[in-house]
């Protein structure tokens, strides 16, 4: 195996095993920053030794052993480190330290991964810091990879990660799964971070690309890990179902030129049937045992995505059901973006004249002033109401607000098409034809609320 192949092997092992290693080490040293430091030392050793010695038969065990030795060496030579371990109740005697350390690391690490998720997504951190730290420690992504994914300077990401670790240490955030009501709130934070990662992959906030599939894949991987660790949490399965059902459309929603393909005209034969099957199964697990019990927000959004997945063609979509699900979601979240999504569904079920007042009522809603999908949806409705001049102005406004180049191109194209001859056709079912698709409304977008910053 040459040097390049060995490096790729090291990177692959790291991507798979780093979260487990950091989680186990954090349990030992009580500090996520120190734990990653020791794990990184093991990674450097692998990069130095594997090219000449070869990749070991059990590479994960090799990394773990090296990390353990680094910690034991620190214990033996660093008095301050020993004092810190004593404070945490982790002090290990010189003679039996290795055996006790091995026993701790050989315990089931599922709980450690869950603890690490709760630490990375702790509310003492900013949203941006939670996302960066989660991708770094649980996703195994390098700083430059995170920076490329979110189109921000590498130094910015590095700073966020360093500050996050310092904040966790300063606040003495415990390495534990919280209990009671605090657990529910903290779990919501974990789900929110995973969904933010997915959203950035499914509909990029800025840049030249509409989608970044690698982020969707990472979010779904984290969702599956979380579902395995918390099998009784229905909203975890709801989020996983939502991501898999949306991700099933990734190949179809981008054209050969990289541009947007509206939901109404997507080639549904290109939708990933395996992801749809998996998403539907996760959706079933998200349902409460009593149908009269309310569903959580992620389960409701997944149910909406399932309605699209069940329709063989766009015209088969049961928009009345979709609108009803959005209404239930509005009542749960109170989100103005969800209400905008509901307006899109109402327009498809009952016509644009029924939806326009709902959209107009959102003009002064919190967070909507700079949200480009509000004028995009309004422009679509106005075009369908045969008011092309007003529609053009709305599409142009939406184009000015978006930071994604593909969306801007799509919106400007719609603005140029707003002439008397471009009023959308009506299908036999009374639903607007493909040219009037409200794709830039919620039906083919994942995020439930505007993103800050």
TrEMBL record:
Residues 117-168 form the RNA polymerase sigma factor 70 region 4 type domain. InterPro entries: DUF6596, RNA_pol_sigma-70_dom, RNA_pol_sigma70_r2, RNA_pol_sigma70_r4_t2, RNA_pol_sigma_r2, RNA_pol_sigma_r3/r4-like, WH-like_DNA-bd_sf. Transmembrane segments: none annotated. Residues 406-453 are annotated as: Disordered. Keywords: Sigma factor, Transcription, Transcription regulation. Residues 186-286 form the DUF6596 domain. GO terms for molecular function: DNA binding; sigma factor activity. It comes from the Bacteria. This is RNA polymerase sigma factor (Sigma-70 family). NCBIfam families: sigma70-ECF. Residues 20-80 form the RNA polymerase sigma-70 region domain. Belongs to the sigma-70 factor family. ECF subfamily.
């Amino acid at each position: 195996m040459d040097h390049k192949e060995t490096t790729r092997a090291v990177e692959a092992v790291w991507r798979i095993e780093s979260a487990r290693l950091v989680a186990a080490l954090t349990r030992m040293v009580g500090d996520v920053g120190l734990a990653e430091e020791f794990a990184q030392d093991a990674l450097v050793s692998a990069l130095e030794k594997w090219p000449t010695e070869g990749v070991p038969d059990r590479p994960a065990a090799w990394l773990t052993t090296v990390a353990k030795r680094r910690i034991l060496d620190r214990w033996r030579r660093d008095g301050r480190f020993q004092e810190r371990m004593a404070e945490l109740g982790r002090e290990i005697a010189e003679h039996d330290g290795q055996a006790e350390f091995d026993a701790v690391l050989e315990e089931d690490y599922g709980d450690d991964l869950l603890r690490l998720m709760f630490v990375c997504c702790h509310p003492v951190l900013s949203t941006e810091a939670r996302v960066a730290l989660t991708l770094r420690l649980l996703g195994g992504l390098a700083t430059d990879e995170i920076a490329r994914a979110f189109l921000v300077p590498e130094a910015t990401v590095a700073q966020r990660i360093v500050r996050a670790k310092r904040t966790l240490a300063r606040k003495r955030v415990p390495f534990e799964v919280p209990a009671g009501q605090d657990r529910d709130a903290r779990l919501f934070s974990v789900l929110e971070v995973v969904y933010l990662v997915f959203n950035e992959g499914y509909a990029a906030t800025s840049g030249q690309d509409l989608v970044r599939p690698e982020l969707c894949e990472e979010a779904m991987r984290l969702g599956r890990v979380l579902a395995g660790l918390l099998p009784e949490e229905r909203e975890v399965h709801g989020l996983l179902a939502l991501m898999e059902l949306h991700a099933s459309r990734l190949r179809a929603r981008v054209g050969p030129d990289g541009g947007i393909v509206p939901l109404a005209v997507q080639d549904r034969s290109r939708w990933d049937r395996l992801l749809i099957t998996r998403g539907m199964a996760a959706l079933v697990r998200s349902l409460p045992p009593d149908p009269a019990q309310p569903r959580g927000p992620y389960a409701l959004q997944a149910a909406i995505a399932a309605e699209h997945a069940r329709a063989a063609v766009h015209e088969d979509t049961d928009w009345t059901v979709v609108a009803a699900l959005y209404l239930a979601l509005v009542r749960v979240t109170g989100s103005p973006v969800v209400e905008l999504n509901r307006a899109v569904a109402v327009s498809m079920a009952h016509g644009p004249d029924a939806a326009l007042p709902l959209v107009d009522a959102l003009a002064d809603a919190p967070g909507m002033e700079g949200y480009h999908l509000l004028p995009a949806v309004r422009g679509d409705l106005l075009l369908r109401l045969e008011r092309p001049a007003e529609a053009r102005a709305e599409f142009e406004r939406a184009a000015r607000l978006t930071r994604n180049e593909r969306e801007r191109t799509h919106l400007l194209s719609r603005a140029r098409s707003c002439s008397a001859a471009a009023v959308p056709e009506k299908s036999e079912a009374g639903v607007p034809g493909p040219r009037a698709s409200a794709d830039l409304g919620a039906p083919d977008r994942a995020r439930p609320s505007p993103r800050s910053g």
